[in-house]
Design goal:
Strand order of the largest sheet: 6-7-8-3-9-10
Structural class: alpha/beta
Order of helices and strands: EEEHEEHEHHHHEHEHEEHHEE
Radius of gyration: 19 Å
Oligomer: single chain
Largest sheet: 6 strands, mixed
Distance between the termini: 42 Å
Number of strands: 12
Length: 262
C-alpha cells in the first residue's frame, strides 16, 4: 500500500536500545491509523521517529516519496505536522497567535503574514471549531479547548500528514470524543493521513480506520480494528484474557476481562 508516509523495515529505540525492529508501516491519505499497545512498547518512540524528532536505528521513512533524512526541518514541517503529548504554551499567547505560529514552516520566523497565511489560520481555526476561542489566551482554556487550539496550530502548517501522541490524555470523556471527532473529520473530509497513539481500545476501534497493535518488540497486527483487536490479539499484547464484544451500530468494541469470579 502506498501513502504520504511510508516506513520500510524501520527499527526504533533510544539509549542504544532497539524497542521495535523491522516495521513496515504506511499511513494512507484520508485515513486514521491508530497505534495501540501496552506502556513501554515503543508507540511514542515510533511516532517521534516518523516525525523526524529522533533517528531510527535501522530502515527508513519516506515522506511524500522523499527520504525523511534528506529533508530540511522546514521542508519536513511543510509536509508533516506533529503534536506531542504535552506541548509547552508560550505565556500570554492567544489561540489565533498560536495558530499563526504554525505558518513559520512556510514564511520563516520574521517574515510578514501573507493573505495565504491568514487564510490557512482561519481555515485551521474553523475546522477545529476554535474560532470562538481565537481571542482567548491559551493558558486560560479548558483541557479540551486547549487541545483544539493546538490542533489548529499544527493544521495551519497545511501539511498532508498529521501525527498526534496521545491527544486525549488528561481530558474527560466529552473532550476526548470532541478531539477524536475533529481528527476523523481531518482525515475523511480533508484528506489528511492521520496517525495517532491511543490507550483506549474502544476509541481506537471507533475512530481508527486502521490499527497497529504492538508489544514485546514486534507488530502483532496491522489492519482494520475488527481484524486486529480480537480476544487473541489483546491477550498476546496485554497478557489479559478478555471477551471482545463488537457494536454493530458504532463499529467500536468493548473488552470484558475474564476473571476467576466469572
Amino acid at each position: 500500500m502506498s501513502g504520504p508516509l511510508v516506513a520500510e523495515r524501520l527499527s526504533v529505540g533510544h539509549d542504544g536500545r532497539t524497542i521495535l525492529a523491522d516495521v513496515d508501516l504506511t499511513l494512507p491519505a484520508s485515513t486514521v491509523t491508530v497505534l495501540v499497545g501496552p506502556n513501554g512498547c515503543g508507540k511514542s518512540t515510533m511516532l517521534r521517529t516518523l516525525a523526524g524528532l529522533q533517528r531510527p536505528t535501522g530502515g527508513q521513512v519516506r515522506v511524500l516519496g522523499d527520504p525523511l533524512d534528506k529533508l530540511s526541518r522546514r521542508e519536513l514541517s511543510q509536509r508533516l505536522a506533529f503534536l506531542p503529548q504535552t506541548p509547552l504554551v508560550p505565556a500570554g499567547i492567544t489561540v489565533r497567535e498560536l495558530a499563526r505560529n504554525g505558518r513559520y514552516a512556510h514564511r520563516g520566523a520574521f517574515a510578514r503574514h501573507t493573505a495565504e497565511d491568514l487564510d490557512a489560520v482561519e481555515w485551521a481555526l474553523r475546522v477545529t471549531n476554535a474560532l470562538p476561542l481565537a481571542g482567548k489566551r491559551v493558558n486560560e482554556l479548558s483541557g479540551g479547548e486547549r487541545q483544539r487550539a493546538w490542533l489548529a496550530a499544527v493544521l495551519a502548517q497545511k501539511a498532508d500528514i498529521l501525527l498526534l501522541d496521545e491527544p486525549t490524555t488528561y481530558l474527560d470523556l466529552r473532550y476526548q470524543v470532541e478531539v477524536l471527532e475533529v481528527v476523523r473529520s481531518l482525515a475523511h473530509e480533508h484528506g489528511m493521513a492521520c496517525g495517532l497513539v491511543l490507550h483506549d481500545l474502544g476509541q481506537a476501534s471507533s475512530y481508527g480506520d486502521r490499527v497497529m497493535l504492538t508489544a514485546g518488540g514486534e507488530i502483532l497486527g496491522h489492519g482494520t480494528p475488527a481484524e486486529v483487536l480480537t480476544s487473541e490479539g489483546i491477550a498476546r499484547a496485554f497478557g489479559l484474557d478478555v471477551k471482545v464484544v463488537h457494536d454493530s451500530e458504532t463499529g467500536g468494541i468493548a473488552c470484558f476481562p475474564r476473571t476467576s469470579a466469572n
